[in-house]
Amino acid sequence: MPAMSAPTDTTTPFMKMHGLGNDFVVIDARRNGFGLTGAQIRAIAHRHCGVGFDQLAVITKSTADAHLTFYNADGSTSAACGNATRCIARYLMDETGRDALRLTTDRGTLDARDAGDGLTAVNMGAPQMDWREIPLSRQMDSLELPIEGGPTATGMGNPHCTFFVEDAGAVDLATFGALHEHHPLFPERTNVQVAQIVGKDHIRMRVWERGVGITMASGSSSCATAVAAARRGLTGRQVRIDLDGGTLWIDWADDGVWMTGPTMHVFSGVFTRAFLESV
Q: Which domains are assigned to the chain?
């Protein structure tokens, strides 16, 4: 078989990464900038005709070590994406040889560090519990919303709605998540979690992400669920959360909510010019 030559009509390098199966296309735009349209982002997200991702993350220059911008699979933006932040933090630490750095996002400035044993930790900042910050559509106590099941609302730079259930695996998440993502109490839509308390420091959780659907894991959702469980007295402030894709460790500390877990850089590639121009 003859050797395959590299295509000549390529442009826009990217990386495919994931944290516990929560997968991302990452574009390092610190040198060449970023110019993809919403239609192109949605095309890249397609799991048959594109690359496929839960979120697309863009790295740009910052007064800190880098700035991160996040897009959902439907092309909408999100101020926070915990697992993507951890993946990119690992990439930048490998690049620089450092074991700690600071990243700016629309959520704010986030600290990241090497947690040892191949794990990466990111401080996702203080949780938002006031109805205006989450945001909710009207004044109410975010601890128990007037929705069947009495979920807790939490902001982690994006809105979350956590339902505590007897059996997370028994919930029809495709129907349940889609229904509650668009609940009128959430003017910016919401991520939806179903969480099962296994013990005082152990939660089983499944997640529906706004603008995406069911995902194997979600970092900000894990942080929000840990905060909600602690607020309701169901757990302490340090918990293990088992998701469909693996385990994250959450610590709601005085300086913010720390999230620790594994990351993976799967491959690097380039989009062909033909693909981008076809959209």
A: 10-123+263-277 (3.10.310.10), 152-254 (3.10.310.10)
For the stretch 121-175, pLDDT in tens is 999 999 999 999 999 999 999 999 999 999 999 999 999 999 999 999 999 999 9
* Residue 105 near residue 85 (C-beta atoms within 8 A): yes
Provide the residue type at 271 as one letter.
Answer: F
Identify the DSSP state of 151.
Answer: -
What residue spans of the chain are helical by DSSP H? 38-45, 82-96, 173-181, 219-231, 273-277
Place of tokens 């495709």: 174
For range 245-249, the mean pLDDT: 98
Closest CA to 67 of 31, 37, 97, 108: 108
| Long-range Cβ pairs for the range 31-39 (8 Å, 24+) | 33/60, 34/58, 34/60, 34/69, 36/12, 36/276, 37/279, 38/75, 39/75, 39/279
